[in-house]
Amino acid sequence: MIAKYLSEVPAAIAPAMANHLWQSTLFAALAAILTLALKKNQARIRHGLWLAASLKFLVPFSLLISLGSRLASPRFSLIGRHKLFSVVEGFSQPFTFVVVVPVNHATNAASLLGLLPSSIAAVWLCGFVALLVLWSVRWRRVVAAVHRSTPMDQGREVVALRHLEKIGGVRRPMALLLSRNSALEPGIFGIFRPVLLWPAKISEHLQDSHLSAILAHEVAHVRRRDNLAAALHMTVEAMFWFHPMVWWLGARLVEERELACDEEVLQLGNPPSIYAESILKTCKFCVESPLACVSGVTGAELKKRIVRIMTPASAKQLSPGRKLLLASVGLAAVAGPVLFGLWRIPPVSAQSPRASNPQPATVDLAALALDAPIPRSSKNAAAQQIYHVGGDVSAPQLIFAPNPEFSEEAKREKYQGACVISTIVDAEGNPQRVQVVRHLGKGLDEKAVEAVQQYKFEPAMRNGEPVAVEVNIEVNFKLY
Q1: How many domains are contained in the chain?
Q2: At a CB cut-off of 8 Å and minimum separation 6, what does 166 contact?
Q3: What is the DSSP string of 435-476?
Q4: What is the DSSP annotation of 321-353?
């Protein structure tokens, strides 16, 4: 069943995924530049930037653009903006995955390329499942430790914890569980109802000041909802395990998370020497937490943290200029694609010139290079090469385009949007091999294909001779 499903994975997913990865990587690089500019500010700000860069992998810009298109009021227009739209679209989606195939190997290459999407999907699925299994094993270890733990209702640990929760503004008191597993460090387990796992014999090695400092660190994790942030990034790691940037982001998140908690502990008035000593004593007694979404006290690079704690320099508050910078970047990242979706006007509309008086229509033709000949109905088709527009190859000109009809389902739901059709405009100006490369659904894809199959072009020219070119045409269905 899985093999059958993987074999049906469309090749059109590859360009969309490549564009999404490219955009997310660029967004993460921008976050890295901002964190460098804010390295003297509070660690919680840098942690927020790294978390935003991580979550960007779950939110494609194309989704925000589509949201903007859905929010646009129904209207019909072909006024200008075509050139700018093409530039922005080309920048945001630079990958088209064109493959050049020698003529005499076209058949073998086509069969191999047909296996490529399912092969890639199978490799991704293996990595995804392997990570889930690994994390499940570690998660079961922590769950088992929680089940073997006994609640603590009294003692100096409970008194200190309740006092720190009150200071930190934690509304729901945490359960303090005494763990018999001394290998686990003190840590917060759980996301929505967190509990504090406390090794049974660690209190014997800690004075009251050390105990208070460690508990303050754990309360800071709860107040900041660090386990939720870690779980979200683990989702990103599972889905994009193949991307090195994702794992690098995870290391930065842990580093800034611990530094942010360290800053909060010191702001409560704990002496740096006492706090650093409490971390070292915990490291001596325990080992690191076995799961990324269990927030402990010994995480991140220990040497760097101790140096930061012992040489505290008060983290600067954000200046008005830097607040404006962060607000502008955040607004541009979210609102920019949505506004672009509201603003853009697709170059091909549902209204076409009359058949009795054909006139050129505005069409967005993105030509793609492909040297392998494709069978078509024109004469001497086997000898034709498919070119791309540019250089000495002119673009084909649309001279007749019948109205694409709305499907009954789309009419009932007042559904509108645009789909992208790929076709070969042969040397006689006829569309060949018409297929959908960006789907719209609700029966409109089929209607778009039916309309494009009836298009008539003035063929592309090369050195004065008509040639075949491959183009993408965006067909827009608008209510007006």
Answers
A1: 3
A2: none
A3: EEEE---TTHHHHHHHHHTT-EEEPEEETTEEEEEEEEEEEE
A4: HHHHHHHHHHHHHHHHHHHHHHH---SS-S---
Residues 222 and 305 in one domain: yes
pTM of the model: 0.62
Structure tokens, 208: 């009251």
**What is the Cα–Cα distance from 295 to 222, expressed in whole angstroms?**
9
User: Would 116 be classed as within a structural domain?
Assistant: no
Residues pairing with 178 in the sheet: 150, 198
Q: Are 151 and 300 members of one domain?
A: yes
Task: Work out the pLDDT band at 53, boundaries 50, 70, 90.
Answer: very high
User: Is residue 160 situated within a structural domain?
Assistant: yes
Q: What is the mean pLDDT of the chain?
A: 75
Indicate which CATH number applies to the domain containing 396. 3.30.2420.10
Instruction: Give the pLDDT confidence of 369-405 residue by residue, as tens digits.
Output: 333 333 444 444 433 688 888 778 888 888 888 888 8
218, 276: one domain: yes
Domain with 469 in it: 381-477
pLDDT per residue over 322-353, tens digit each?
778 788 777 777 776 766 656 554 443 433 43
Mean pLDDT (whole number) for 475-480: 77
Nearest to 431 by CA among 402, 463, 406: 402
